[in-house]
């Protein structure tokens, strides 16, 4: 599995999410191999899990995941572009990834464009959008950052990857908790199994399951407790990078790194703002808190070929 690139993310009440870079996904179309991703799955008391895979990944046939049968087939194949994989994963390996999320169910092109622009100009390292080929084309026209697409149906990824998405992510049930979806407590074991199969990243979530008792900084910390606890627990059980998302803010982003995360995913702190300048400022503030270079610095480094 030396060439595989698969990432698992953990949600407080969620199932596995798969993310794949486009190179492998395109290769997958000519392969008979399948990666089997579990549909709404288990969650630990600290958090659930989402699975991510880069599209430069090798196919996995009938992953056993500690005896848990997978339900949804996600088609992937042999690695064809190590440089593509590095483009997607380098900031996770540097433990400073900042993924700005427009929303799993946000198909409004104007809203997505605003979030992507804020991510680009604010100094983020990745953007995460709904799984839609037209949104992918829009995103890659606005940013040079790796574009991740999220969905709960792995079969929806093909057209998004064909449109240019760099990663695919399945298993984010954060927006479905209010419908009554609940999960069992197998996430750490599942994370260990998927790491063995070639997973690259585990993303922890859980902000929607917390209910802060106080406003202000105290409330922001309370809201992030589930995802921080999951990151702490899971990062000590596996060797691949762990990413915190859901309930993360400028206050808690550095805490995520301190407890063992390799990066953070930020959604509502940015996408709920109505002003483009405010969005950019929020992304910039979180990027600064993580020690990321400014957009201007990135532009200068790119121009210098660094």
Describe the structure.
With 306 residues, the protein is of the alpha/beta class. It has one domain (6-303): Aldolase class I (TIM Barrel, Alpha-Beta Barrel), CATH 3.20.20.70. 37% of the residues lie in helices and 16% in strands. It has helices at 22-28, 82-93, 109-122, 133-142, 157-162, 187-197, 216-235, 253-258, 268-271, 276-289, 295-303; strands spanning 6-11, 35-37, 48-54, 72-74, 97-101, 126-130, 147-151, 167-170, 202-204, 242-245, 263-266. The strands form two sheets. The chain has a nine-stranded mixed sheet with strand order 1-3-8-7-6-5-11-10-9. It has a two-stranded antiparallel sheet with strand order 2-4. Helix 8 links the parallel strand 10 (242-245) and strand 11 (263-266). Helix 3 (109-122) runs parallel beside helix 4 and helix 3 (109-122) packs across helix 10 (276-289). The longest helix is centred in the last third of the chain and has 20 residues, at 216-235. The protein is globular. Residues 1-18, 24-48 and 56-80 have low confidence and may be disordered. It holds the Pfam family DUF561. It is found in: Plastid. Belongs to the ycf23 family. Its main location: plastid. Keywords: Plastid.
For the biggest β-sheet, the strand order reads 1-3-8-7-6-5-11-10-9
CATH architecture: Alpha-Beta Barrel
Overall structural domain count: 1
- Estimated radius of gyration: 17 Å
The residue fraction in helices comes out at: 25-40%
């Amino acid at each position: 599995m030396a060439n595989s690139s698969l990432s698992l993310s953990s949600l407080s009440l969620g199932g596995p999410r798969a993310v794949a870079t486009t190179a492998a996904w395109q290769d997958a179309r000519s392969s008979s191999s399948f990666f089997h991703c579990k549909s709404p799955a288990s969650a630990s008391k600290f958090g659930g899990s989402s699975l991510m895979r880069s599209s430069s990944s090798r196919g996995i046939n009938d992953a056993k995941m500690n005896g848990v049968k997978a339900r949804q087939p996600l088609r992937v194949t042999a690695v064809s572009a190590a440089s593509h994989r590095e483009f997607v994963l380098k900031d996770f390996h540097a433990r400073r990834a900042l993924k700005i999320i427009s929303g799993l169910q946000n198909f409004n092109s104007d809203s997505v464009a605003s979030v992507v622009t804020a991510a680009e100009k604010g100094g983020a390292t990745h953007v995460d959008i709904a799984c839609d080929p037209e949104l992918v084309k829009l995103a890659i026209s606005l940013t040079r950052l790796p574009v991740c697409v999220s969905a709960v149906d792995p079969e929806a990824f093909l057209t998004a990857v064909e449109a240019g998405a760099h990663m695919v992510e399945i298993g984010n049930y954060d927006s479905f908790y209010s419908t009554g979806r609940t999960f069992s407590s197998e996430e750490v074991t599942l994370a260990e199994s998927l790491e063995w199969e070639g997973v690259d990243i585990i993303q922890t979530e859980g902000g929607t399951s917390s209910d802060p008792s106080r406003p202000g900084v105290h409330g922001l910390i309370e809201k992030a407790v589930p995802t921080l606890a999951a990151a702490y627990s899971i990062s000590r059980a596996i060797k691949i990078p762990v990413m915190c998302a859901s309930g993360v803010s400028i206050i808690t982003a550095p805490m995520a790194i301190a407890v063992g995360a390799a990066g953070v995913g930020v959604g509502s702190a940015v996408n709920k703002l109505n002003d483009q300048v405010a969005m950019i400022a929020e992304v910039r503030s979180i990027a600064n808190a993580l020690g990321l270079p400014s957009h201007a610095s990135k532009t200068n480094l790119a121009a210098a070929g660094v």
